[in-house]
Each structure stands twice: as C-alpha cells, then as structure tokens.
Amino acid sequence: MSDTISINITIADRTYPIKVKANEQILIKEAERLINDKLYQFQMQFTGQEKLDYLAMSALMNVVEVMKINEEGTAVNEQVNKKLSEAELLVSEGLRKP
Predict the structure, then answer these.
(1) In CA terms, which of 27, 50, 57, 76 is 20 to 30 Å from 92?
(2) Phi, psi at residue 12, to the nearest 5°?
(3) Going along 12-98, which residue ranges are E strands?
(4) What angle do CA 8, 11, 12 make, to 5 degrees?
(5) Cα separation of 18 and 4, whole Å?
(6) H or E, element range at 7
(7) What pTM does this model have?
(8) How far apart are CA 90 and CA 17, in angstroms?
(9) H or E element: which one contains 91?
C-alpha cells in the first residue's frame, strides 16, 4: 500500500491512528464527522448513557440508512431493467416489420 498516509481520527473522544489511501482521506474525515454528529444527537436525546450505548445506536442507525439506500438502488435498477426490456422488445418488434 504505497499510496497510504497516516492520519488520526477521533470518535467519542478517543483518538485512533489509522492508515488510509491518500484519495480516501477526505471521505474518512467526513465519516468521522458524521459519526460524531450522530453521537452528539444521541447524547442530547438520551442523556446519562454510556458512550458505548451511543456508539451502538449510531452504528445501528447508520446501517439502517445504508440498507435503505441499497433497497432504493435495487428498486431503481429493477425499474431501469424493466424499461430496457420493454425498449428492447419494441426495437425487436420494429425490426421484424417489413
């Protein structure tokens, strides 16, 4: 991994040194910000819990969001495939006509 760089990320007041691809640094930093924002939201909503509880809820909510996006993408792909099949059928029928 020659194009890796070392960076520090902080999640829930803990710092982690990690190596990432240079072209992914901005993405990693944005993920760090989103995680900490979600933790803060849970801390404000459910006071008095341990940080691990906030991390667990944040992880759960993030996975649910990813699953929703994947489902939406699958539905869109199915619609596109259906429309392509319909278009292919119309083209085939058009080519058969003398």
Answers:
(1) 76
(2) 55, 45
(3) 14-21
(4) 140
(5) 10
(6) strand 4-11
(7) 0.69
(8) 57
(9) helix 51-96
**Domain residue spans of the chain:** 4-96
- Non-local (6+) Cβ contacts of 34 within 8 A are 62
Contact 23, 38 (CB under 8 A): no
CA 11 to CA 30: how far, in whole Å? 12
Least Cα distance to 18 among 7, 10, 28 occurs for 7
Q: What torsion, rounded to 10 degrees, do the Cα atoms 88, 89, 90, 92 define? A: 80
Model pLDDT for residues 37-50, shown as the tens digit of each residue: 999 999 999 999 99
Mean pLDDT of the chain: 88
Q: How far apart are CA 20 and CA 11, in angstroms?
A: 16
The residue-averaged pLDDT of 22-42 equals 94
